[in-house]
Amino acid sequence: MFKLLIRVIQENITYFPQTLRLARIDMKRAHMTSDLGFFWAIMKPLMYLVMFYLAISAGFKGGHDLKGTVCPYFIWLAAGIVQWQFISSLLVAGAGCYNRKKNVIKSVKFPLSTIPMIEVMSKFFVYLIMIGILMIMCVFMGVMPSIYWLQLPIYIILTVIFLYIWVMMTSMMSIISVDILEFLKTINTAFFWLSGILFNVKGRTSPFFTYNPISYLAEGFRNTFAYHIWIWEEKSLFLHFVIVLFVLTLISSLLFRRMEKRIPEIL
């Protein structure tokens, strides 16, 4: 198992330039049917954020009881929404990555372990732009860059690692059973509401939050922009995240070892 993990890491590093090229092609293909193209990829999460802000803050007068924040509620909300938009774009869609890459798998000598990374990177470009927009909004709303922003790359890397493992695991499962994709569609909304994207989960000890990697990653962005908390100040939550990541890695490795040689035949 350890040798398999080392090989997967080496393949992703070796083929990363090709992965980025294929990811850019996927991103362009996804928006080529529209005249404005990539513009809509940015507008969708922005409108998502604005609608939630108007509904919760302006409409229901909620979200103003946040303690310990150094920013307006809108920035606190935006930090969680930016993370959720990137994660949610792959929670369900990532499970079908091998089916969408049939031509690549059949016609090109390309390691199967890199296919999930292509899927992640195809959404990663929009993610980076949204983070840039979040930083600009911070400055416009009086939240100046701080030393805590230096830990932002750590949370970005952790998010990419989590999503790669998740896509790898669910894509293997969806090949075994087509019902997995329908199951993921069903529970996608549950992920949203059980991850504390719209409400404060600081201090809550429920396993739904302490062992929820999505909640941890969203709170990581809020620790950076809103709370000014270093990643090592919440050691127990990081340990819970690592435990969940280890379990997901173990499952995805077992599935990949079993399915790697069979995937081209099945597809």
Q: Could you characterize what this model shows?
A:
It is built from 13 helices and no strands. The protein has helices at residues 2-14, 16-31, 38-59, 73-91, 97-100, 102-107, 115-140, 152-176, 179-193, 207-210, 213-227, 235-259, 263-266. It is globular, with a radius of gyration of 19 Å. The two termini are 25 Å apart. The mean pLDDT is 84.
Overall pLDDT metric: 84
Approximate shape: globular
Structural class: mainly alpha
Largest sheet: none
Helices, by number, come to: 13
Report helical residue fraction: over 70%
Number of strands: 0
Tell me which oligomeric state these chains represent: single chain
Q: State the order of secondary-structure elements, H for helix, E for strand.
A: HHHHHHHHHHHHH
The termini sit apart by 25 Å
* CA-atom Rg in angstroms: 19 Å
* Uncertain residue segments: none
Any idea how many domains? 1
Summarize this structure as a short list of keywords or feature phrases:
267 residues, mainly alpha, 0% strand
Describe the structure in brief.
The chain is mainly α and 267 residues long. It has helices at 2-14, 16-31, 38-59, 73-91, 97-100, 102-107, 115-140, 152-176, 179-193, 207-210, 213-227, 235-259, 263-266.
